[in-house]
Amino acid sequence: IRSTNLTASASVTITSIQATLTSVGGNAILSIYSDDSDSPDALVATTGSVTQVEGLNNYDLTTPYAVTATTDYWIAYTPDMSITSGWVIKNSSRVNVGAWTVRGTAI
Fold first, then answer.
1. How far from 15 is each of 34, 82, 90, CA to CA, in Å?
2. Phi/psi of residue 9, each to 5°?
3. Which residues have C-beta within 8 Å of that of residue 75, sequence separation ≥ 6?
4. Per-residue pLDDT reduced to its tens digit, 25-70
5. Burial of 56 (0-12, 13-18, 19+ CB in 10 A)
6. Which distant-in-sequence residues (6+ apart) come within 8 Å of 37 by Cβ?
7. In this predicted structure, what is the pLDDT of residue 88?
8. Read out DSSP for 10-53?
9. Which of 68, 58, 63, 73 is nearest to 12 (CA)?
10. How far is the C-alpha of 54 from the C-alpha of 47, rounded, in Å?
11. What's the pLDDT score for residue 83?
């Protein structure tokens, strides 16, 4: 499992996560966790298992999840096997969040 934290710069509803992958194989699940003192805490959203391909992969959340501006979250990547080279959290509008791009509907 690989995970990374991020701070949402806008309140948005997340519907899917995109990851640009290299050296791929097998399947993967992505999950969003709440933060507790700079560590992952409770699971708040997850995707189904997706067969990975080289390049851009789309992981739909099983249920859309509303993130809150200035709140910390963790994204966890659970593959059979793979190396990630970049991520995008997506919906319809765009707001930069550090190395991440959040696309979503303002709430």
1. 16, 23, 7
2. -95, -5
3. 3, 4, 5, 6, 17, 30, 31, 32, 33, 87, 89
4. 788 888 999 999 988 899 999 998 999 888 778 888 999 999 998 9
5. exposed
6. none
7. 47
8. S-EEEEEEEEEEEEEEEEEEEEEEEESSSSEEEEEEEB--EE--
9. 68
10. 19
11. 46
Of 103, 31, 22, nearest to 74 by C-alpha is: 31
Task: Quote the CA–CA distance of 62 and 81 in Å, as a whole number.
Answer: 22
Q: What is the average pLDDT score of the chain?
A: 75
Distance of alpha carbon 82 from alpha carbon 54, whole angstroms: 10
Predicted local distance difference test score (pLDDT) of residue 70: 92
- The whole-angstrom separation of Cα 36 and Cα 55 is 32
Q: What is the pTM of this model?
A: 0.74
User: Beta strand pairing status for 12-35 and 55-67?
Assistant: antiparallel
